[in-house]
């Protein structure tokens, strides 16, 4: 099971990172959150006051910085050049700018290379938008995780308000729809379901039920492939 490579893609708030973490733990694989990498570059660009339209500067940042992950009991911590930015990359300004930064071809080239290097070294559950199509086109398991936008917004709303953030539900829903539009409409490796991905619609499904479904798919793939 250690070398299984699982690609988990889907829109914002579908439950990818929550489910990917649990599946990875259960199968003894490494969880890789590729969204956190795009968020880390976005955070750095905001720190350096780089315009999200300045492709050359963004490309330079992504080839220069070192991104590392450290697994913890709650998930994973993200470090950029040795600095822990786990909390910072979830900030609103990072979320608002990440789609623009991640549309830059030079940024994608650096991060896709890093993601492929990790998956060459170990078995992974990798979550993102283009894992099954671009990063790991020959992954052993490809899942497209989705849910209605209403439900995805509700989940994010509950998650954020539980952490003490105050937000407007309708605005949050519009932000999610806008980000999905930008991510699926961009020219380079857009968010897209791979033709051979299994669709798992999580609307009305709890986390445990989704994890069980995906574990079942992984175990079937393992039985066939290994
Ligand atoms: O967790 P959430 O759905 O809010 O997003 P995320 O997985 O942290 O990803 C943040 C953003 O990074 C996405 O909206 C995409 O713009 C970008 N992304 C990407 O372009 N390709 C990936 N493989 C993963 C994320
Ligand atoms: O990574 P992605 O943006 O796809 O979603 P997430 O951050 O894993 O999940 C967003 C929120 O939905 C979290 O608070 C999860 O606990 C919750 N969730 C849920 O309520 N039911 C599911 N089946 C999956 C996730």
TrEMBL record:
Q: Where does ATP bind?
A: 10-18
Q: Which domain of life is it from?
A: Bacteria
Write down the chemical reaction(s) this protein catalyses. dCMP + ATP = dCDP + ADP; CMP + ATP = CDP + ADP
Q: Which GO terms describe its molecular function?
A: kinase activity
Q: Say where the protein is mainly found.
A: cytoplasm
CDD domains referenced in this protein's UniProt entry, alphabetically: CMPK
Q: Does the keyword Transferase apply?
A: yes
Q: InterPro entries, from UniProt?
A: Cytidylate_kin, Cytidylate_kinase_dom, P-loop_NTPase
Under the heading Gene3D superfamilies, the entry gives: P-loop containing nucleotide triphosphate hydrolases (3.40.50.300)
Protein family membership = Belongs to the cytidylate kinase family. Type 1 subfamily.
- Name by which UniProt lists this protein: Cytidylate kinase
The gene coding this protein? cmk
